[in-house]
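Your task:
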Amino acid sequence: MALRKIASIGHPILRERAHEVTPSELAQTSTQELIDDIVATMRDANGAGLAANQVHVPMRICAIEVGSNPRYPYMPAWPLTILVNPVLEPSTRETFLNFEGCLSVPNLRGQVPRFVSASVRALDRHGAQLDFEVRGLTAGTFQHELDHLDGTLFVDRVVDTRTLCTWVEFDRFHREEFARRASDLVARFGS
């Protein structure tokens, strides 16, 4: 495993739609090594998720995992999940405002409307079919990562730009209130 450089906002790769991964591509050693590198890079940077195009590879692959994350202490745990060619469909019209940050948009947070539940279909790293539902804050994380694969950053979805703030100012002025809202979502959905 190797740590890879994370692309920052402004790099053209973050605005490209990543290409579908073929079964033969997925089976390649280089793709499996890429997946390992995505996981290692995500963990090293304390991310809740990381998409392949964030490490300069325009393939429809992402990793999501939440444990004891100092960047997101209010987020519920989610086991390491590798998604290949994922498709997400909202299962409700109800949304919540998620205060998001991104490893590719350093030191910035902003409120983004996200669906409170969605179904996810994808392949795992071995090509097995995945089909499951995500809810609450976890649903927001999945929507964020799948946006990356389409060349969309969270700043594109911020409805009120007055919510944009640095991490320091988020901690100072917004964390407590958002943590309360996050706690309500976790209590309601368990995730």
